[in-house]
Structures are given as structure tokens and as C-alpha cells.
Design the sequence.
């Protein structure tokens, strides 16, 4: 018997130590923290705050500047990077403190989530309370959390020397990794809440639906990173055309789907209806299987999300609307995971 899992031939004493419901509730708490962090990350991006902290100090960085001298030191570090020199030259210390707050809060949440995952995991491990088969999965999620921290710095580092912002590609990697961890944690918690803590296989329809949603989320990150939401603030047309024919076109062709703000906004606009189709298929399938509440949740969130996307454009990327749009995207992912898990329970492969 290992310290992380119960053996296949469980004794009554071993079974009494397993705490699947307690572990599930803990994981749902961690998922809630990740949700908050993604929302704060959206605010950080929309307020152009992400480059305000120019060093990566995983431990000592948890303590913010406390004296005037420390604040001036942080401000001087920021004044060395291209974003300040080319865009924010003349910014006051008070203005710097405003953008510093959001990046600091985002990083602090990352540290809190790391501790909120690692310390209870260690406790459950020592108590031998982790059901059979879940130890490796939980350790992998812990590892992914550490990788995500490194990805976050890799993203920030892209904007410290030559660029005036972070790489939108690295931003997309950072966001998608966070959402993968979020989805995996929710799925694991749902497994643990199943009778006997049975592990379920992700249904094929659920995989396709989540894949389409992930593609849309990637383009959403491209839109945010390229400030593509400001390119056209009309809907359904971009100006007076479906796609502006006078818009610049990059070479080679495929580069437009990554680096051209107008093309990226166009794809993000209309791929939303591909996600809508996937959501409807998933919702109908789970409803037929008996999951009426999960079906209703998916329908409600996909409709809300599309309306918020349109509102984000029409308001010229209003901060509150755009942040709500990102928050509902995370909830939509959770609803896809929930519906897929319900489908796996009701119609096991």
C-alpha cells in the first residue's frame, strides 16, 4: 500500500479512511479560486497592468512594496521596459500603483491557489484518505499548477525587452493551461462525488464540444492580446461589410489567423456560433439521457455568452462587460464539463 492511494483489495479499515466527498469539496474550492484568478487576469490584461512587475520572485514577491523607497525601486524597474518608454512615459507613481495592484493581486492569487492545492493534498496523502487511482491524477494537477506559474512568467518576459505588450500567443497558452487545470479539477471532483468514487470516461461528444470551445477561447485570448476587440465595434457587420475587404492582409495566409487583429476578431465573432451548435448538441444529448438541469444550464450560459460577446463589441470593450464575458466563458466551460460528466454517468461507454 502506498501513501497516496488505497490498495485494490481494500479492507474495511482502509475504506473508512477514504474521504472522496471531502476531497471533492476541496477541489471545488480550488476551482472557485481559479475562476477568480482568471477573472482578475482578464482585468489585468484589460487595464494593461501585466507588465508592471518586471521580476519573477515566487517566494519573496509575495510581499508587496511597503516603503516609499521600495515603491520607487519597482517604478524604476518598470521605467526601463518598452511599454513605459513608448506608451506610458510620464506616468506618475500613483498611476503606477494602480496597475501594479492588479498584477500583484493576480500573482498573489496564483500563490494562494498553489498553497490551497498543495497543503490539503499533503494532508489527505498523510491521512491515506485518497481513493484508489486518484493519487497520480492529483499529483499531475499539482505539477500542472507549477508549470502554469512558469508559463505566466514566460508570458510576461515576452514584453520586457522589445515588445510593448506580452505575446498574444503566450497569453493564449497561459489562459488555456489555466482552463485545462480548471476543467480537470472540476471533472475529478465530479468523479469523486460519484457512487464509489467511480472514474468516468469523457464521452466523445463532450470531447468534441470542449475542443470547439477551447478553439474559441484561444481566439478570445488572441483578441485580448492583440487588442483586436477595438478594431470594429459594430455587429453583425464589421463596418459596412461582413469582412472589410480593404483590411491589410498578412503573408503567408495562415499568419492572419494568429497575428491579424481584424481576421482574429472575425473568426472569434463567427466561431461563437460553432460553439453554439456544439452546445446545443451536447445539451440535447444529456437531456435525452435524463440530465435536464445540465441541459438547461448549458443553454442558458451559451446564450448569455454570445450576447455578452456582442455587447463587448458594441460598448467598445467596456471593462465591466468584457470582464463579465471572460467570467461567463469559464462558467460555460464548467457547464460543458458538468454536462459531459452527467452524460458519462447516465450513458457509460
Sequence:
Amino acid at each position: 500500500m502506498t501513501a497516496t492511494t488505497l490498495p485494490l483489495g481494500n479492507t474495511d479499515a482502509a475504506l473508512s479512511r477514504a474521504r472522496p466527498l471531502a476531497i471533492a469539496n476541496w477541489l471545488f474550492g480550488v476551482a472557485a479560486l481559479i475562476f477568480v484568478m482568471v477573472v482578475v487576469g482578464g482585468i489585468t490584461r484589460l487595464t494593461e497592468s501585466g507588465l508592471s512587475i518586471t521580476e519573477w520572485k515566487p517566494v519573496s514577491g509575495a510581499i508587496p512594496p511597503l516603503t516609499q523607497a521600495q515603491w520607487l525601486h519597482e517604478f524604476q524597474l518598470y521605467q526601463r521596459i518598452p511599454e513605459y518608454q513608448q506608451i506610458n512615459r510620464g506616468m506618475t507613481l500613483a498611476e503606477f500603483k494602480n496597475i501594479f495592484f492588479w498584477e500583484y493581486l493576480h500573482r498573489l492569487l496564483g500563490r494562494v491557489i498553489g498553497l490551497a492545492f498543495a497543503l490539503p493534498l499533503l494532508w489527505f496523502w498523510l491521512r491515506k484518505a485518497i481513493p484508489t487511482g486518484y493519487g497520480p491524477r492529483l499529483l499531475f494537477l499539482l505539477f500542472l499548477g507549477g508549470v502554469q506559474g512558469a508559463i505566466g512568467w514566460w508570458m510576461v518576459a515576452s514584453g520586457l525587452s522589445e515588445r510593448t505588450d506580452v505575446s498574444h500567443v503566450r497569453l493564449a497558452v497561459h489562459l488555456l493551461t489555466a482552463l485545462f487545470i480548471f476543467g480537470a479539477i472540476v471533472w475529478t471532483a465530479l468523479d469523486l462525488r460519484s457512487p464509489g468514487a467511480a472514474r468516468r470516461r469523457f464521452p466523445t461528444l463532450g470531447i468534441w464540444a470542449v475542443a470547439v470551445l477551447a478553439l474559441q477561447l484561444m481566439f478570445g485570448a488572441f483578441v485580448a492580446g492583440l487588442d483586436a476587440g477595438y478594431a470594429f465595434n459594430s455587429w453583425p457587420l464589421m463596418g459596412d461589410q461582413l469582412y472589410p475587404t480593404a483590411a491589410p492582409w498578412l503573408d503567408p495566409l495562415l499568419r492572419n489567423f494568429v497575428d491579424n487583429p481584424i481576421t482574429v476578431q472575425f473568426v472569434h465573432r463567427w466561431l461563437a456560433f460553432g460553439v453554439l451548435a456544439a452546445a446545443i448538441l451536447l445539451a440535447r444529448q444529456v437531456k435525452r439521457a435524463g440530465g435536464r438541469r445540465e441541459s438547461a444550464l448549458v443553454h442558458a450560459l451559451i446564450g448569455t455568452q454570445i450576447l455578452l460577446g456582442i455587447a463587448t463589441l458594441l460598448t467598445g470593450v467596456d471593462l465591466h462587460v468584457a470582464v463579465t464575458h471572460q467570467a461567463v466563458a469559464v462558467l460555460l466551460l464548467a457547464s460543458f464539463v458538468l454536462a459531459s460528466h452527467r452524460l458519462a454517468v447516465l450513458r457509460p461507454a
In short: Residues 157 and 166 are 7 Å apart (CA to CA). The mean pLDDT is 93. The chain is about 70% helix and 0% strand. Residues 202-349 form one domain.
